[in-house]
Amino acid sequence: MNIYEQDLGRNAANFVALSPVSFVERSAEVFSDLEAVVHGARRYSWRQTRNRSARLAAALAAFGVGRGTTVSVMLHNTPEMVEAHYAVPALNAVLNTLNTRLDAALIAWQMNHCEAAVLLTDRELAPTVAEALRILREEHGRTPVVVDVCDSEFVGSGERIGAHEYEALLASHAPLARLAGPQDEWDAIAISYTSGTTGDPKGVVTHHRGAYLNAVCNAATWTMPHFPRYLWTLPMFHCNGWCFPWTIALLGGTHICLRKVEAQAIFDAMRNERVDHYCAAPIVHNLLIAAPQAMRAGIAQKVRAMVAGAAPPAAMIEGMARIGFDITHVYGLTEVYGPASVTIKRNSWAEESIAEQTRLNGRQGVRYALEEGMTVMNAASMREVPADGETIGEIMFRGNIVMTGYLKNAKATDEAFAGGWFHTGDLAVIEPDRYVKIKDRSKDIIISGGENISSLEVEDALYRHAAVLACAVVARPDPKWGETPIAFVELKPGAQVAASELVAHCKQLLAGYKVPREIRFEAIPKTSTGKIQKFQLREKARQAVTDQETR
What we know:
The protein is an alpha/beta fold. It is 32% helix and 24% strand. The chain is built from 17 helices and 27 strands. It has a nine-stranded mixed beta sheet, sandwiched between helices. Strand 13, helix 12 and strand 14 form a beta-alpha-beta unit. Helix 1 (21-30) runs parallel beside helix 9 and helix 7 (208-221) packs across helix 9. The longest helix is centred in the N-terminal third of the chain and has 17 residues, at 46-62. The chain is globular, with a radius of gyration of 24 Å.
């Protein structure tokens, strides 16, 4: 024992486990009278939001919820969803935010896998949830306590399916004296499920320490001021809203809730509630860019947007600049709590051409300040690739803002952490300034005649056509070349363009072998967070070839 270990141990005065729950208590203490949540006619101060969350925590505790108990929520971006993010971790329980677009079978599978003891569910989603609960009961023998949320902004007649109603439950319990959090910051705070495009989804377990640090990183990365007015265009069920429920608590800001993501509703909220920050996938930003200019009338404040969820096309970055929104590009995955890297804009970039600024801002950037490592490696040798902008490897992370692992899946956890780094599956290069640029997902690279084609590069070319609202490029089996690109395209409202015109447009921007051999105009399948489901499109492309061969 050295001299610095003698009589200098941890105690209640000098050590507290890190948990974002502490941000809620602080804002209730020092910003108690300031607005915390806005949802239609409902407005709650930080004192009220803390007390509502503490009442929910008391009610859950009465149901037996405690350390390691899973509480599932099937909610839109409403005050109740915010309160769940504060109440459940306060009990050292585990929050499981369910995707509101899942089918009943998958809801039941996830709730069974994480052994959910309680479910908070929006009345609008009752038909699907009722079926999920039936499956959960009959096939898995589980009967969680169900609490119905009757949202004031829901217009409809959704039935009640639970034994308890949310507001009545809160009214029947005195608030806990304190939202305490865990004794051990390594304890699980949440479980979030991956999309499961190649089999059963994986349950990503995250801890209090990581959620605390990433919430702080969000504020530092975005240089957010105190009291931001944050619009919930990003689903809170997606990576716990990228940890922003806790970031807003850290800063004493205001949650502007949004039940439905529609251009008119977004612009109305920006205008009426003076929104200055929001996050979204590229598809939502494109929706705003394509909206009539009249919708943006009266928005005088500076609006700052964060984009992630998919690599943003250059046309989107240019479009955001045109409408006057300041865009920050971040990159991450569920396994790293949402965003874990950022394209930090250097002052010198302002002197570059618009085209070069767009290129620079379109990169995935550098690691968050509190993420200990991010690089691009050769996955076989586990050596970093040269910073030459050409050598492709796999993006990897390490540090405190990395998941604990996959629930009940030791094999997948070991594979993900092989070599002491988290393997993302995203292929990228390191440019000479050490900024990372994604080339593609490993499974989305198209290999045509032995040449690698980045689907993102082809999509970026398509997005530069004025008529294109959304697009996705995947591999189509080809007897000669092995694979060739096929593009699925959605056009902007009122736009018309022929496939031949888009092909000619691409030929001006791409090498011949990268140009799509076929273009289909049809709706592109997306998740509720705006991610394009390429696995469905790949299957369509394969099936089309099979159908042709059997004719």
